[in-house]
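Attaching the record inline, Q. Sequence:
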Amino acid sequence: MRDKRIGLVAQIIDEAGLDACILKGMDNIFYLTGFRGSEGSLLVTHEDVLLLTDFRYITHAMEVTKGIQVLEVQQKINSLPRLCDKYGIRKMGFDSAHTTYDMYARWTETLGNVELVPLNKIETIRAIKDPEEIETIKKAIRISTDAFTEVYERIKPGRTEKEIANELEYTMKRLGADCPSFNTIVASGPRAALPHAEPTDRELKDGEAVIIDFGAQVDSYCSDETCTITLGKVNGKIDKIYSIVREAKDLGLDSIRAGMPAKELDMIVRGFIDRKGYGDFFRHGVGHGVGVAVHEAPAVNYMSESLIEPNMVLTIEPGIYIPHLGGVRLEDMVLIEENRTTVLTHIRKDMLSVRS
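Structure, as predicted:
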């Protein structure tokens, strides 16, 4: 399977008229080789694939990779010029989204006549999932679901946002996750109006809504799901926006299909919320791809140029956020198939309420 992925990169190189490409993004390197570490570069030429990393990872890299060359690089010694000479590289692509300016400046200084060309297409390869990837994502979802179900019983007024987030992350790890997919979001009361709020020592209070956005990473693949919980009887406006967000999410689930432009799905869901009078309070995209990274191609927003295709795994996550009052976000993950869409996440998204 990884040979096929390398083949797709080689095709991108050919189509762009390049001699090679150098990748720094670790998600891309893992996807193509199976290696993940804090330092590494992947050079793909027409003849060979070379993983460049330091002494800390050499043994591990040789254990987890197959069919590629693993080369040890030493601090302060730039081995790339020598490799460019060896392979006759005069025009080389790089994954611009993951290459720092300092690294780019270093390359331009040391590579002489090698022309550097930014590449963005590498990310798109990961959008279509193979069966093994889909099964791993489903495993991550099962673990995060079981963890949430366990922690849900302990969500009460008086508990802090940090306590709930920490318990959820610990439980996911205890149940088999490598780590959370991202820093768990627990935002209560007025703080639920912050789409990416960091958990604080604020205590949950009766009569509030609490947004919990969480995911597990398993074998380097992610899950991503959001529930909004109410603590007893909430403000009537929260009830109203909860109903609107749930209907918007369900409309997205009913509308999404293979072959449709991603921006069309965004327009459908966003248009529904706008007609309900809350368009100004929904400012982020309707969804995104999930895989090796928790946010990856395709983006589902009004600027997206992507088509939704079979074997993509996407989120649908509308939300309404009202300053000083609070907010509601509901998120499911879906698998796009030729003639249907399957919801992969298991937690119900009607109003979940806990009593004080």
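The mean pLDDT is 95. The chain has ten helices and 20 strands.

More tomorrow.
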